Amino acid sequence: MSLLITDECINCDVCEPECPNNAIYQGDEIYEITPERCTQCVGHYDEPQCQQVCPVDCIIIDEEHPESEEELEAKYQRLMAEKE
């Protein structure tokens, strides 16, 4: 599953630069995550880096976008191929 930033976000700016897939961006009111780019850091790190640095723990699993570990790995492979 991709991750989701809740409305508890305080716009502290620490999550965006941590995302290796450039999935996090400044939305109208809070930071948001593009589900098509979020792999929960699969392929890059053992744990989602945005969750690790978030001071208010407002980044949660997005139940609207369920994905298996294999699907996240395939998404990572696709994103890496697009970079080339």
Automatic annotation (TrEMBL):
Pfam families: Fer4_7 (PF12838)
Highest taxon in the source lineage: Bacteria
Keyword field: 4Fe-4S, Electron transport, Iron, Iron-sulfur, Metal-binding, Repeat, Transport
Domain named 4Fe-4S ferredoxin-type: residues: 1-29, 31-64
GO cellular component: cytoplasm
One Gene Ontology molecular-function label: 4 iron, 4 sulfur cluster binding
InterPro entries for the chain: 4Fe4S_Fe-S-bd, 4Fe4S_Fe_S_CS, PSI_iron-sulfur_center, YfhL-like
PANTHER family xrefs: PHOTOSYSTEM I IRON-SULFUR CENTER (PTHR24960:SF79), PHOTOSYSTEM I IRON-SULFUR CENTER-RELATED (PTHR24960)
Name the record gives this protein: Ferredoxin
